[in-house]
Amino acid sequence: MADFQILALVRFAYPGLGAFQTEHRSVTERAAHLWAPARMEARLRTLEHVCLGTLRRQTDMGFRTLIVTGDRLPEPWRGRLLALAGEVPGAEVVFHPPMNQRDAMGQIVSARLRAPGPPSIQFRQDDDDGVALDFVERLRSAVTDALPLWRRHGKMAVDFNQGYFLRLTPAGPLVEEVTRPHLGVAQALVLRPGARRTALHFPHHKLARLMPALTFPEPRMWLRGIDGTNDSHMPDALGRLRPASPAQAAALETRFGLDLPAIARSFAAG
Fold this sequence. Notes:
InterPro entries: Put_rhamnosyl_transferase. Keywords: Transferase. This is Putative rhamnosyltransferase. By secondary structure, this protein is an alpha/beta fold. The chain has a single domain (5-269), classed as Spore Coat Polysaccharide Biosynthesis Protein SpsA, Chain A (Alpha-Beta Complex), CATH 3.90.550. It is 34% helix and 22% strand. The protein contains 10 helices and 12 strands. It has helices at residues 27-34, 37-55, 77-85, 101-110, 135-145, 147-153, 207-210, 235-240, 246-254, 260-269, and strands at residues 5-11, 64-70, 91-96, 120-124, 130-131, 155-160, 162-167, 174-179, 187-191, 213-216, 222-225, 242-243. A 7-stranded mixed beta sheet has the order 3-2-1-4-9-6-10, sandwiched between helices. Helix 3 links the parallel strand 2 and strand 3 (91-96). Helix 2 packs parallel to helix 3.
């Protein structure tokens, strides 16, 4: 199997400006929004049980996870974030000063890649998104098969287009089965390690126009969090969510590794 530098890029309440559809006039205004206690409790729940929960159980753990947040993230959130990251092999919390989001990711990623070195595979993951437990394994296999294409073009995207919209509630998960290409979850870019741009520099919904893109229609590979506050704004999706059927709940547990009883307890504890 070919050698790769695989990075999972997770932004957690990072108050840099730019790269979001919901903008703020200042770093102070954005930090106040992102670090509001009620919001932080909700996002730490999804970070623990969905985002990091699916990453720490991968069948292929040959990757690193970079969790990027603000350098002034206050307690108790700072300590709780470090504790959660400590449960994920290969995870690093990066406390970075506020700046343009893409510039920040460029600095952070380039400092952690060997250049020259093997190709860099990067995938972004919001703090309420997750991937199937075999995502990295299948991603590595797909990129290995397509290396001649990458060598010819210098960059390439790999996308899995089936998954679930998901909302965690005290009464249990709400879901919708979805097929949607280039949603940004379970999607990776293969880049040269010396490239100045990262996976965050490319609009995920435009990748098929920017580079060769491989799309795999099965199996279900992603969880996209839907709670009405997402930056990507999908109010119609929120209204379509329904309580998970027994088969869907089983898939959340076996394919994605979600601990549904633990999630229910987290609401009771809150």
